[in-house]
Design goal:
The protein is α+β, with helices and mostly antiparallel strands. The protein is built from 11 helices and 13 strands. A hairpin with a 7-residue loop joins strand 8 and strand 9. InterPro entries: Homeodomain-like_sf (IPR009057), HTH_AraC (IPR018060), PchR_regulatory_protein (IPR053142).
Amino acid sequence: MKTISITSSILSSIFEQIQIQLGGRLEIKSKEYRLEINNDIAKGFISGISVEPAISYMEYDIVFKEDVSLLYTENKSNSIHFGYCSKGQLIQSFNEYGEKNVLGQFQTGIFSNSVKESTFLAFRKNEEVKLSMVTVDVLSVSDKELKAQLQNTFLINQENNEFSYIGSFNLKISEKIEHLNAISQKGLVRNLLINSIVYLILALEIEQHKYDLVNAESYCNSLSQADMEAIKDISEFIRNYPEIQYSLKYLSKKAGLSPIKLQEGFKIMHNRTVTDFIRNVRVEVAENLIRTSELNISEIVYTVGLTSRSYFSKIFKEKYNCSPKHYQNHQNKLAVTA
C-alpha cells in the first residue's frame, strides 16, 4: 500500500506535499487549489478551498491504481475532519493496524486524532471515490460559539482519546456539494458563495451528528446503499419532470422499492414525505420560472404539474412569504431598475 504523508493543516502546504508524492499538475487561483492527476498512481483530481485560516475544504474525485492511504501526522490534536462520501467508500483508522471504520456512500464521518496517534484514510485500488472534507483547526476558529461547541463535542480529553464517528445517510450534503461545484461566478461573489456553502456543509455535518445521537436507540435503518442510490435517482427524476402526476405506486415501481422503503428513504434523505418533496420541487421550479421566463402565473401553474391556481398561491406563500403575483411584480421592478 502506498502512503501519502500529510504533516500540515495549511492548505498550500498540503497540496505541495500531495503533488510531490502523487505528481500531477497543480493550478492555484486566489484561495482555490486544483491538482489534476493522470499517471501510473491515480487518475482524477483533488481540489481545495481556504475558507478562513482555521477552515479548509477539500474534494477528492479520483481513482487510485493501487491501494493508497492518506496519513495525517500533525504534531497537534486540534484539527477535526468532517468527511462526506458522495461515491464509493473509504476506510478510516488511527493507525495502520487499528480498528477500521468504513465511510460509505451518502454517509458523514467525523474524525479527530490524539497527539499519540495519526489518522489514516485508505482508498481501495481501482475504486472511484468522491470524498469531501471540511477540516477545522478548532483553536484558531474565530467564532467563539462554534469553537466552544466543537471543543465540547469532539475534543474532550484529546490527549489520550481519538474521536471517530460514522453517521447515517444524508443527501442534503450531496446536494450542497453539487451547488458548490456549480458556482460560476468570479471574484468576491464567488468567494462569498463558496464560504457560505462550506459553512452550510459543516453545519449539516454537525446537525447529522446531533440527530444520530438523539436517535441512537430508536433509529433502525433498513435501507441499503443501493436503496439510497435508488432514492437519489428518483429524487432527480422528480426534479427533472415536476409536471408528471405522480403516485406512490408509480414511484415505488420505478425505484424498485416498496412504498414503505420509499417513504423511509425520502424521510432520511430529505426529511420530507414523498408528497411533500414533490410539492416543494414544484414550488421551487415555479419560483425559478417566475424569475427567468415570460410565462404568466397560470401558465407556470400548468407547467409544474398543478391544476389549481389558488392552491399554488397558498403553497407558494407558505415558502416565500408572498403571493406569486407579488413576487413576479417585484422581479419585474428589479429588471426595470437593473
